[in-house]
Design brief:
With 591 residues, the protein is an alpha/beta fold. It has 3 domains: 6-26 and 155-279, 3-Layer(bba) Sandwich (Glucose Oxidase, domain 1), CATH 3.50.30; 30-146, Enzyme I, Chain A, domain 2 (Orthogonal Bundle), CATH 1.10.274.10; 294-590, Phosphoenolpyruvate-binding domains (TIM Barrel). Helix content is 45%, strand content 16%. The chain has 23 helices and 16 strands. Strands 8, 9, 10, 11, 12, 13, 14, 15 and 16 form a 9-stranded mixed β-sheet that branches. Helix 7 links the parallel strand 4 (182-189) and strand 5. Helix 4 (104-120) packs antiparallel against helix 5 and helix 11 crosses helix 13 (389-405). The longest helix is centred in the first third of the chain and has 24 residues, at 42-65. It starts with 5 loop residues before the first strand and ends with a helix. It binds phosphoenolpyruvate and magnesium ion. The site of magnesium ion has 4 residues, from helix 17.
């Protein structure tokens, strides 16, 4: 008899529905640490790896020598001992530490993934058994490297997931997320928050995701059939096409169903075919509004697109360049490859459209270099760049060479400074940019295209002083993810539900204040911009430029197009009232 469905609820981190099989990633804190080494760290890291291998060898020998294992188990352990001498495993891992400057855990996990994949494809059962031995042995080495019990470590091949994989994990760091390749159709985690960068990356890749799902890794087993329903509760969800009407009380909660029944599976297929139909119609920008003004849709990206994510969008309102460097930490030290990366961006599928490059925004959950264990609490965004002038200069130089190589037009490349809070920060970046521009022009012997320098408004300090900053910034983009969490005093990796984060009257008051005082063009690029329930209010407040994840652009477009005169006026009235509301509950009641 087949077992009945098992349901979990979680917070929606990235909207959509998914159907697939569980790939359970069990690790301490969700992942082995991924960290790029400084050149001087390579030697000590090789020694650390050698010591962990030696400790594993001693432990195995002790186990065998104690004579309590029985003949069969001893034979298995003897065979595993040989793996510790295996050049494919040990030498290749050392090579990764040495030449690719990966930390030992990361290098070993990657090598084991490659070897296991190779062995598991073999028909021969002996080879398949070797795959299990390999995993056991690598877990032992990892446990010695990380100082944790062996049972806590499990690393499936994240890179080449089989078709329709739903990744199930306790937590997933943004840097680990960057290494998910292949066929990931959904993500569910026990930890995580709705505005963490894992959620942002999932959205940007159009992968439905739920976070904060209790008891997940205890109850879900590898290979279980799973269905994710990460759609805000809407009238006719899964059946009617957009525009969606969100039941805001339920806006942030979604379902994970293990062993889904027929009704859920059918609703999934209906949703997918509806989405396909809607996507074919596409989006356009600008969109005329009933008052005669125009709204514009822009994209938030974090990787070079292989195809145009939304042909009708105006361009890229936020390119999170830090993810280029987090994914490939060697990029910053390779001026040629770095410049070519920007040249490819400007001459690729988005050629000809404006692209707003946000300078490397390190800190919080995006530690750079991607050192999972180290979190510098002082250096976020522009502070990090000004404390590391070689990084800032290297990036600016690469961008300027890249846009010149791509033949970008004046104004097509816009530069944006992250997490600004002090006036002098913009001055310092402006000076560096002018100097690097002069140097690059002299080297290339040609005039570079104009690049406007704007800034994120994502700290309350910058929001309050925006009219002052306007003298030093060509444009603003409101980053409500950081602005909100800094205003209400929570960490970036907070796990507050959506309602508690974004229905705060203080947030709407801040946006209204910025709109009143800002004298330069302004857009909004935080996750709030992609919420159909809040769009009429943001438009009511006066926002006209929205930069959203590719997976949110269709919903956004449909919600704006649906604003007839009545809905537009209602949005204006709601905007006025949310600014006067006292509580998030009052705001929710108004939606
Ligand atoms: C923001 O803070 O709203 C923002 C868009 O930047 P990020 O999410 O990358 O911090
Ligand atoms: Mg931010």
């Amino acid at each position: 008899m087949s077992e009945s469905p098992l349901e979990f609820s979680g917070m929606i981190a990235s909207e959509g529905k998914a159907l697939g099989r569980a790939r359970v990633l069990e690790t301490i804190a969700g992942s082995v640490p991924h960290r790029s080494l400084m050149p001087q760290e390579v030697g000590p890291e090789l020694s650390r790896f050698r010591d962990a291998v030696q400790a594993s060898r001693t432990q195995m020998k002790e186990l065998i020598g104690a004579g309590r294992l029985g003949h069969e188990l001893s034979a298995i352990f003897e065979a595993q001992l040989l793996l510790l001498e295996d050049p494919m495993l040990i030498d290749e891992t050392r090579e990764k530490i040495r030449s690719r400057k990966m930390n030992a855990e990361w290098a070993l996990a990657e090598e084991v993934g490659i070897l296991k994949d190779f062995l598991s494809k073999a028909r021969n059962t002996i080879f398949q058994e070797r795959a299990a031995d390999l995993e056991d042995m690598s877990n032992r080495i990892l446990s010695n490297l990380m100082g944790v019990p062996e049972g806590d470590i499990r690393i499936p091949g994240l890179k080449d997931l089989p078709p329709d994989s739903i990744v199930v994990a306790h937590d997933l760091s943004p840097s680990l997320m960057l290494h998910i390749r292949g066929n990931c159709v959904g993500i569910v985690t026990e930890a995580g928050g709705v505005t963490g960068h894992m959620a942002i990356l999932a959205k940007s890749r159009g992968i439905p995701a739920l976070v904060h799902v209790a008891n997940l890794t205890q109850k879900i087993k590898e290979g279980d059939a799973l269905l994710i329903d990460a759609l805000p509760k809407v009238t006719g969800a899964g059946v009617a096409p957009a525009p969606m009407r969100v039941d805001s009380g339920q806006a942030s909660s979604g379902r994970l169903v293990c062993r889904p029944g027929e009704a859920d599976v059918e609703a999934y297929h209906v949703y997918i075919s509806g989405l396909r139909r809607r996507s074919e119609a596409g989006v356009r920008s600008p969109i005329s509004l009933p008052d005669g003004s125009e709204a514009r849709l822009w994209l938030n990206l974090d990787q070079l697109p292989e195809s145009d994510p939304a042909a009708g969008a105006s361009g890229v309102g936020l390119f999170r360049t830090e993810f280029l460097y987090l994914k490939d930490p060697t990029l910053l030290n390779d001026p040629e490859r770095q410049a070519q990366c920007y040249a490819d961006l400007f001459s690729g599928p988005l050629a000809g459209r404006p692209i707003t490059l946000r300078l490397l925004d390190a800190g919080d959950d995006k530690a750079y270099p991607p050192q999972a264990a180290v979190r510098d609490r002082d250096l976020r965004g522009v502070r990090f760049l000004l404390a590391n002038p070689n990084i800032l200069e290297s990036q600016l130089r690469a961008i300027l060479v890249g846009v010149s190589r791509a033949g970008a037009a004046d104004g097509q490349c816009r530069l944006m400074v992250p997490v600004v809070s002090r006036f002098e920060e913009m001055e310092a970046v402006r000076e560096t940019l002018a100097r690097v521009r002069d140097e690059v022009e002299a080297e290339l012997g040609s005039r570079l295209p104009e690049t406007a320098l704007g800034m994120m408004l994502e700290t309350p300090a910058a929001a309050l002083m925006c009219e002052v900053f306007a003298s030093n910034a060509a444009f603003f983009s409101i980053g409500t993810n950081d602005l909100t969490r800094l205003a209400i005093g929570v960490d970036r990796d907070n796990t507050l539900p959506y309602d508690e984060l974004f229905y705060q009257p203080a947030l709407f008051r801040m946006i209204a204040m910025i709109l009143e005082r800002a004298t330069v063009p302004l857009s909004i690029c935080g996750e709030i911009a992609g919420r159909p329930d809040l769009l009429p209010i943001l438009i009511g407040l006066g926002v006209r430029e929205f930069s959203v994840a590719p997976s949110a652009v269709l919903n956004c477009f449909e919600s704006i197009v649906a604003l007839d005169e009545h809905a537009f006026e209602r949005g204006g009235e709601q905007a006025r009232r949310v600014c006067q509301a006292h509580t998030a509950a009052d705001v929710r009641a108004l939606l």
